[in-house]
Amino acid sequence: MGRGKASRVRRWVLTLLAMGLAVAVGVWAVSLYVEKRYADRILPRSEAPQKPVAIVYGAGLAPGGVPSPVLAQRLDAAIALYREGKVDTLLLSGDNSDRFHDETRAMLHYVLERGIPASAVQEDDAGLSTYDSSVRAHTVFGVREAVLVTQRFHLTRALYIANSVGIDAWGVAADEGRPRTRRYALREALSRVLALGMVLAEAEPRYPSGRTLTGSR
Q1: Domains of the chain
Q2: What are the angstrom distances between the C-alpha of 66 and each of 16, 49, 100, 115?
Q3: How many CB atoms sit inside 10 A of residue 200's CB?
Q4: How far apart are CA 149 and CA 78, in angstroms?
Q5: Could you tell me if 156 and 185 are in contact, meaning their C-beta atoms sit under 8 angstroms apart?
Q6: pTM for the structure as a whole
């Protein structure tokens, strides 16, 4: 390889490295902004404000069609908020886009089996993502104030979206008092960037109307 060609290769490598660094810095900056924007609205469960509704985001099912451990943790925290008189209603928002994966039905069974009255529960089975769940809570279910219930790693993004789309939202970490995990750090950083983009674009959820996925089609 001649000197001229080697020099061009080095320039290309340096350019690509610089571009990669710029992208990484940009992702980090946006992720940090979304993470910190409403972080002061995360409170211990004992200090959660009284709100009409707690929004519980889906988190997958375990074998047998029961809530995954992560989802069960969210549901347990929401049940505690209801029993403590912090919220009047639980809005269970999950994914029922596959007839063999009915998150909201599993969530409903879970809370009913633990003594939550059916009259205190609403289901949104078109909550296909955090963004969709938050927007639909506001536009379809009329939520104006809420406590969001999810794990700490996810809560800052959920708060950013919910507050940005018109909900006066506060957050309670379902894993309150437990060691934080870095397991989802990279995925969450990228998801925060996507969340900012969707908020700025005022993107519509996949199913913008109807209280059930079937009715939204």
Answers
A1: 37-216 (3.40.50.620)
A2: 46, 30, 12, 17
A3: 9
A4: 6
A5: no
A6: 0.85
Distance between CA atoms of residues 172 and 159, nearest Å: 10
Q: At CA 190, angle to CA 194 and CA 76, rounded to 5?
A: 90
Q: Residue with structure tokens 């529960």?
A: 121
Extract the tokens encoding 32: 């940090």
**CA quadruple 137, 139, 142, 145: dihedral sign:** positive
The tens digit of pLDDT for each residue in 168-200 reads 999 999 998 776 666 777 888 889 999 999 999
Query: Is beta strand 66-67 parallel, antiparallel or unpaired with respect to 87-93?
Result: unpaired
Instruction: Write down how long the chain is.
Output: 217
One-letter amino acid identity for 30? V
Could you tell me whether strands 121-124 and 66-67 are parallel, antiparallel, or unpaired per DSSP bridges?
unpaired
